[in-house]
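Section 3.1 - Work completed
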Amino acid sequence: MFFEFRLQTGFFETKLFLLQVGAGKMVIAPKNDEAPTIVIPEEEIESITIRNEKSLSIEIQTKSKVYRGTFSPETKYENLLEQLKGNLNKTITCEYERGNKSD
């Protein structure tokens, strides 16, 4: 399952990427440009935080970098959480407020 999101690539810059959560890893692949695909093995992940406030967002802190992004409005919080929990043996911090507008 892929989740479309805008990855923060600069101070005020974001680009469209696809997030795939697989067994023991996360893959962040560019949707429209030639940027390299980022593979994050589970052992590199320090923490994962997902927030469902005004929009659904994620922060992935690794040993060397922090990745932040905001998901498309169609992305369901529950689906993302299920994929993370089912594929990664990491603590996931969830900040949940209200729910998606379609709920």
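Second construct:
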Amino acid sequence: MARRKSSPPKKGGGWVYIGDSIRKDGSKKKYVGMTRRSPSIREAEHISEVRKKNSKTWTGKGKYYKTKTAFWSSNPEKAERTLHEKMGIKPKKKTTQKKRTTSSNRTTTKKRTSKTYSKKSTSPQRRTNRTYRRRR
């Protein structure tokens, strides 16, 4: 008997926080972010990025980070967007994943380039193990 996948948890509220980042050239910049965890945990993550030598994150490019204020919001994504607009801060770029498309013979996209399996050539058991192993 196959196990039924559970539905993803419903998104609830979260924290929106504003922090200061002092850059290596001495300029002071504002950072707005949101988290569903505690703001102090998120601040610790930002501080650990500052300590790294070759950090690729926005806060990690500075030499100091401190969260100034945080507040609870029932819709933190919207609150974060609103703060970005009001404070004149450029919002973070959202990364989007390329959607997978399938045709009638189950061809793969650029992400899965190993092999193409048709429905007729392999049994459903083998096709599941090979083609859909990394599918999410």
